[in-house]
Amino acid sequence: MDKMNQNSRKLIELNWLRGLACIAVMLFHYTVRYDQIFGHVKSYPVDVSWGGGCVILFFMLSGMLTAYTLNERATAKKYIRNRFIRLYPMYWVCMGITIIVMSLLFPLYKQLPDSAIDLKTVLANITMLQGFTGGAIKSVDGAYWTLAYELRFYFFIIFILLFKQYKHLKIWTFAWLGGAFCVVIFRLLSMTHWIISGIEFVIMPGYAASFIAGMMLSYLLRNSRDWIAYIGLMLTILLAFFKLRTSYFPFQCIGVVILLAITLVRNSKFSEQYISVINKIEDKGLWVLSWIASISFPTYLLHQHVGFAIIWRMESLGLCEEVFLVIPIIIILTLAWGTNTIVNKAVKILSNK
Questions:
Q1: pLDDT tier at 70 (50, 70, 90 boundaries)?
Q2: Which of 251, 267, 277, 311 has the fewest CB atoms found within 10 Å of its own CB?
Q3: Model confidence pLDDT, tens digit, residues 134-145
């Protein structure tokens, strides 16, 4: 049975995971990715190559929280409006900041293999749909590649709401999972018809495993005895094995284990004591991770290329030790906080007019 009471519906632990994943992705780009593209002046002793895989955790949390907070009162119109307000103003402002920094403060930006800031690219990026062009149009920032997958997931939710299928959400989740496995089978049989490629493009089998896993976990959070959801969860791991890149697969498994453990404890007879401990830990210091989670979207949008510009400037000044990476992290978090505060206030004012 669902033992979640009104006071425990705030899933603080998920904020901690999102905050940790955010820092891990930043460290991956600042240590490994920067070195791959430009080369650090001095080699770093700490290897954070695993940090890139934390995007899987972002996808899983997105699926879990979206499915968990969705309800019968939700409508496609309201969902689209909320998603647009939540994403696009912040995205446009962060993209503008990135363009300014790249063009004025980062002369090496032309060496970036996965981005550009010419007029055509910028205009296409305004729509946030550049990731659907198959690489024909680059992104202003290489980190934007995840947005196309998030948007596909949002399109799935819009479909559910548009056709009033909320009561059958689990059935449609399994339909998505089944379609992904069909693509796997077709590819194993070396079938390359354009229709198969089109289906694969739409349902994104590899990353679908993470979104669907999150949705299955949300069903278990509501009812820990939902054995069908357990089966679905295990199938997402199998799907990830076939379709996720090798370096990302462990994160699918780790994410499922951690989130399933949280789900089971929150539905156990120890849930009240557990939540009490979680709240105390939050107050003692882990609120920092929750704060980072609250600004994770602008942080993600700003961290890569703006961070690269800061690192390049630091190393030109002789700040080449790995410990100095705390500087771009602090600057990016501060910039993200300021951007988040200003944009949200502006959106609120404009929405009330």
A1: very high
A2: 277
A3: 889 999 999 999
